[in-house]
Known about the structure:
The protein is an alpha+beta fold and 85 residues long. It has two helices and six strands. The two termini are 20 Å apart.
Amino acid sequence: MTGRVTEQLKLPKDLMLGEAIVTVTGRSDITVENYRGILEYEPEVIRLSLKHGQIRLSGKGLSIDYYTSDDMKISGMIDRIEYSL
């Protein structure tokens, strides 16, 4: 029901439903907003918990440049972005 109300009132889904916002800049930078936690952190894989599932980033030399309770910035050579429930 919240989804329908959000659509009808044209409210931003990230605010109303807590959806993640993933901003990709080239192949070397990603900013993730509204994440829940860090599940895996290796130079080749970073896996994050989201409100609705997970996101898995794979590549080479991946690192978390910074993180707060709201967002984080990841850099490195990003080869793949995968979402799962």
